[in-house]
Amino acid sequence: MSNIKPEDFFKNIISHSKEYGFIFQSSEIYDGLSAVYDYGQMGVELKKNIRDYWWKSMVQMHENIVGIDTAIFMHPTTWKASGHIDAFNDPLIDNKDSKKRYRADVLIEEHVSKIEDKINKEIEKAAGRFENFDRTLFRSTNGRVKEYQEKIDIINARFKTALNNNDLEEIKKIIIDLEIVCPISGSRNWTDVRQFNLMFSTSIGSVSEEANTIYLRPETAQGIFVNYLNVQKTGRMKIPFGIAQTGKAFRNEIVARQFIFRMREFEQMEMQFFIKPGTEMEWYEHWKKIRLSWHLSLGLGKEKYRFHDHLKLAHYANAACDIEFEFPFGYKELEGIHSRTDFDLKQHEQFSGKKLQYFDPELNQSYVPFVIETSVGLDRLFLSILSSAFKIEKLEGDETRTVMSLPAALAPYKAAIFPLLKKDGLPELSESIMNSLKFDFNLAYDEKDTIGKRYRRHDAIGTPFCITVDHQSIEDKTVTIRDRDTMKQSRIKIDELKSFLDQHVGIQNLLKNL
Ligand code: ATP
Fold this sequence. Notes:
Strand content: 15-25%
CATH superfamily of the domain at 50-87 and 198-387: Bira Bifunctional Protein, Domain 2
Bound molecules: adenosine-5'-triphosphate
Shape: globular
Oligomer: single chain
Helix content: 25-40%
CATH topology of the domain at 50-87 and 198-387: BirA Bifunctional Protein, domain 2
Strand order of the largest sheet: 3-9-10-16-13-12-11
Largest sheet: 7 strands, mixed
Number of helices: 18
Distance between the termini: 30 Å
């Protein structure tokens, strides 16, 4: 890895994403639209592969989980029942000098996370000095670490009470007491904290008819809840069972920074798991484990993930945590796992007047099921994979190469086929190889520039294998195959390419890690 400064690393990822067709700013020719992004020709493939992997592992690999695809627009009462009209708010605060707007809760959380960083630094410093170092013991006995931890506990306790009491004045007071400054102006000149509803609204129906306010869904989950009975009955589903869905969600985010981490239009992949009341803690722990091992199966590194329990539970939850990922700008939420109780189904029963119960043949009784939700943002997942894969490697001399070590099964192209020269029958043989493999794999064909340049181009978009057709190929029906990560080349029979690729780039490589 070359010596690239951390603050430049993220900028490099953003410009690389644009240069190689992964992500473009939306409506760029009009100077863009804040926090809205488009996926380019490479990005759409990577995103689709991530979505497919999630779908396969949740739906195909679980006999008791089925998928659906519900509309973005829903009856407006849905959002009254779900609590989003009344409670889907974020506390916002403005800095009077910079005129910048912040999420008050995020300012406090970031302050806490800075203290946590200090603790980790102390631990790592000590770990470097002693053999057989016991981190847990050090954490609980070292004076300075204990001091930091006490500070965190005091802030968290105050913050939790303020959130639970919806005490906006106290939230502002915490910001003032912690001497949190605006990163732009450096001042502590804050406005009061206000609540801000995150839902986008529009109207349905023509002007002459009665127009109704309608919302762009802020989560895909409600589409699952209102269809719970349809799916349970038509699919003859027995509890415990799950319903999965992927699709767009919309939130008018107050602070929209950090590229595709926080967007106003994004995609969620959610699964609601319907269970018997009273079994929710067991299933909550179960899904925490399953989802963490799903993330670990991507091979981005165990140390990049951690659980974070919610301080303030949402109005529908009795337990909730996030799986956080170490993005280039620190540990942030990647996926939420929530024990949603029977809140949503009961609310929909009450607002619709329809029963949403399950008859349990084993208990010989009906009940409203409890729900465990797993909810991951596809765009955040994309960013986690992209930022871990992106590397600038030092080669011999002053040479470097940019390589995206994407998990092979998720890469946009699985292989690229190059004729060494544009003559002597090499392009024709390359094309025939391409034609025999393209039913099974997404492949690139490239005959422009030197082989070295073609390798670099495909390293930069993460193509796991490059196949070169040369004169020997015509004689003995072999080609060279070059591995993106090791850059090693070997010869392989053309007839064996399909099984080689199946073995190395198939999605089963990820699924079998689960
Ligand atoms: P945050 O605290 O970061 O605002 P959240 O807790 O509101 O997120 P959830 O409502 O739990 O998020 O949504 C589930 C998942 O959807 C999140 O873990 C995240 O991956 C994704 N997500 C939520 N909001 C956004 C957004 N604005 N842009 C991209 N992904 C998002």
